[in-house]
Amino acid sequence: MDSRQELLANIKRRQMWDFAFAMMGLLSLLFALVTLLALIVDLGMTGIPRINAEFFVNFPSRFAEKAGILSAWVGSFLIMVTTAFCAIPLGVAAGVYLEEYSKKNWVSQIIELNIINLAGIPSITYGLMALGLFVYKLKLGQSILTAGLTLGLLVLPIIIVTTREAIRAIPNTIREASYAMGASKWQTIRYHILPYSSGGILTGVIISLSRAIGETAPLITIGALTFIAFLPTPPIDGQFPYLNFNWLMDPFTVMPIQMFNWLSRPQPEFHVNAAATGVVLLVMTLIMNGGAIYLRSRFRKKMKW
Amino acid sequence: MRRLRERAIETVLFLAAASSVLVTIGIVGILVTESMPFFAHVSLKDFLTDTQWTPLFENARYGILPLLSGTLLSTVIALSVAIPLGTVAAAFLSEYVRPSAREILKPVLELLAAVPTVVYGYFALLFVTPLLQKIIPNLGGFNVLSAGIVIGVMIVPYVSSLSEDAMRSVPNHLREASFAVGASRMQTAFRVVIPAAFSGITSAYILGISRALGETMVVAIAAGMQPNLTINPTEPAATITAFIVQVSLGDLPHGSIGYQSIYVAGLSLLVLTLCFNIVGLWLRKKFQEKE
């Protein structure tokens, strides 16, 4: 009977530990989520009252109540466009090559190891590289183009990795069917692989752009200005050919830098402006990430191979 | 004709893939070439042993130690938040939670990594620091403690998501065997699943360490940007990244000593990250499950 009681006590003890550990897990999750909630609520309570139409159409000013984020959101938008143009074609092409073409040899192994390593390189070193290479060696200046290229390279690994994942999910039967109809490798990729993986690729693109929009440090490093009270050259021209790319070479500021600038001032009125900018940034990144999560789950459900 | 086109396309795609290697070469090449002139001014011994870092002062001193101590201090604080929280959360998500709940909880947790770092800086400076001041009354407005804690929360998803992936890829028959000999869920998690997934968990930790070492905006905003050789987390300090931001904000003539000093700082950061990556690789090799 003794050993039976011992056994029961033992089981009881283990169940208790098990329960305690589950509680710890729950608390860890809760702690992280409550922090996120506290951040959102704190930022929102301070920032939302400050947001009105004027906040979006005013330039920064030394009077906190008159200051707005016009030059910052225009800059953020143009840089996102430039980043997308640099990173998407390059990243998708690299992902397709690594998944569909590359043979198991040392070249592809170096490329793969390198992409893993790039994810661990601090973003500020991209900024240092851009300052030395794009600004001083290639003389592109502290311009929107430089910023777009920098962020493009920064988010390149994200696009490559998600493209590969999306392509890997497509079963071989699709490829075999295409080859059986006499399609070439590129035709198979162009008409079957890419369309079917477009959902996954889009998810990666959205995540990388939301990362780019919040990125601050590399842009400060390349010498983005913190006070800009003018807009870049308009991209549409009255004369032929109607499109004008001079804006690529214009100086810029972006929302995170504007927020950082207001945050580093001692006056609390500017901190309110910083919070308002933070709300705009946060809403944009949360919408983009929410969209990416939704897309991912939708495509996972829809695509049952 | 068709074969030619196919070859051309393959070549173009290969060049795109190879461009990622060019990025690495570019980063390392630029950091090394731009920081070399610095060592013509400053001896390596001064750089590694001097206890003051004041490259922009009249009486400039160039000792990396204060920046290094700031960086390591904020990283250690961040990790002591992120590793326990992230690992426990990962074990919980992988071993206890129903798959349907996990599908919701994991993306929500990943939102933590999506918040822009400058917003975290705001949160550290204007929410966490005042909160900590209620517990530690003589805490200054700028301190490494709140910056470190916030970075820690921010990198929880890096640790937990990758660890959870690693734990979930442990084959189920190992769990069943463990349950069959009477182990509880917790014992299975700690004695079977975590050891089996250790190499994946190590990768998650290494990524978390890289993020914490390279994190910039939180420390630049909340830690005070004062190079300070200390291990006291309630004091202000500067990290390598915060220094780069501080100098970049000013006017920075190409080729000046200030310009060179940010490259030296960047190179030190890269070397530091590389060291941790190598240690991680070695750990993974050592503990990799032998089939």
From TrEMBL, chain A:
- GO terms assigned for molecular function: phosphate transmembrane transporter activity
Q: Does the keyword Transmembrane apply?
A: yes
Membrane topology reported for the UniProt record: Multi-pass membrane protein
Q: Where is the ABC transmembrane type-1 domain?
A: 73-292
Name the GO cellular-component terms.
plasma membrane
Q: Which NCBIfam families match?
A: 3a0107s02c (TIGR00974)
Q: Which GO BP terms sit in this record?
A: phosphate ion transmembrane transport
The UniProt record lists the keyword Repressor = no
Q: What is this protein called?
A: Phosphate transport system permease protein PstA
Matching entries from InterPro entries are given as: MetI-like, MetI-like_sf, Phosphate_PstA
